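Posting this for the archive.
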Amino acid sequence: MQKDYMSVIVSTAASRFGIKALKPYQILVVHRILEQEDSPFVRNQIVILPTGTGKSMCFLLPAVLCRGITVIIYPLLALMNDQILRLRRAGVSCICLRGGQTPEQRSELFGQLDKGTKVVVTTPETLQNQQVLYELGRRSISLLVVDEAHVISQWGKDFRPAYSSLGNVVIRLRPHQVLAFTATASEQTIRDIRSCLFFSKPLIVKADADRPNIIYRTHRALNRAQAVLELARSCLRPAIVFCRTRTDAEMVCRFLVMELEGISTRFYHAGLPREAREDLEKWFMESEDGILVATSAYGMGMDKSSVRTVIHHRLPQTAEEYLQESGRAGRDGETATAFVVVTYRDVALFRIGGSSGSERSERPINDSFSNSPGKAYSPLLSIFLSDRCRRRALLHELGQDKDECTGCDVCLRQVPIGFSADSQIRSLIRRWPFRFNAMMASFLLCGTKNHNANPLMAITNPFFGSVHDWNPRLLFKTIKHLAEEDSSYPISSVQFLDQGRLLYPSDKLLYNVLAKLLRRIDNGYCWIIRKIRRLRLCLGKAGRFKDRRTGSKTSGTLRNQGTGGFLHFRKNRAGRQSHRS
């Protein structure tokens, strides 16, 4: 009997889906589903297979082979559209039940089930509709499949409460088998899935969550948007940039469009109209050199195998989320890279453990283009800011151990040192504390020959163009933020003078002390110079008056050398000639 099942599985995979060889875990899951098709004793399954190993084939093949109807629940419309397209290419008829459909449209769709259609694609919210439950409940349901089941734990408690009600759906539909599929799941996530969907202990099929062809790297920068731009210029494409909010996705995309020439870049999130999302999905599926800036609305289950790079503009809160999103890269088995952007503020939050950072909203320019809601501190920062192997640390969060690493910047000894433009900014301010304001310094460092913002002498400065890959306006805002609002940055005590000069951040310098005493930060330095000049005049007048009274042939003039106000006595020419004679 087992041989018959094997031959049917292999032949159906080849004829319907064009798959010549199935992976061992796929065969194991499909074989068990078919074995229990006619058995009165059924053990349901939780299947945990890493991204790119063909989870969807584990339930699409049984959907074709089982006699009854298969109901597949997806969390996202993008994922539904992707799987519907795959089913239709394989010649498998299916219907899609979603929000916004009229009673007439749904009546027509249910009529297709009576004509032989065996696959229903839907969402948990649609299954809360009593009419939908009635129509499906009066038919024979072989399989109830929950794809991306980890969202039961992540979203079901508040964001998507319909997921918490799936237990009632199981009771109403009475499916022969209940299956939950996900790519990553911690022990707590597994417990949440089990308590929501299953009324008896399910069989857990769990493979290694590691994706050995993905290299995990960090990229350090003072500004998130600039970091994404630097990576977008140099990384292999197609690429996906994951943002945590819709506003971030839109603003980062617009910034990349302005700065990148010849590279098609678009944004994607759940707030776009359905037609726009479908057009974007089609565009990215066919693109060979595009960049998609997206929220988590794009990603889960989207089957674009040739993505070479995934960039995280900001880290998610859990390892499951991160591995789900980074797993979009390299689904074809070729080498891919997953970058995480780390800013100076991330380092500060990591050092204090996120105790104050989680309550403080992040500024739009330094860390993002918008005030992102939610937690600013991600627990995953400890993984990407430590000297531990990234791969082992991520898998450890899922309760798995790994003896070796197939690629991360720690194990490859390629961990970035310092932050982009950080040393140039600090060196310029320390070397010339009174010469440039923030705008002038930004144009100088970026190498922009703008006479309105840069004096001609700045072009000969050794720092001219040292960070030429930055946008001067963005660098200006970054410097202002670091100097005035980010207390963790070394130049945070720099003050900007009214005359457009920088005050060096040191209480040991005389002009800083006097400026504080005078409570005139903007005039402290000028006050010193004025006093030194007056002292010179007084001493000069006193010397000339003494010469007239004593008739001395030697007189002294006082000269100030430099801005430090040091006095130097110099004999006049007549005095020197008298001395020689």
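The longest strand covers residues 214-220. The chain is about 40% helix and 15% strand.
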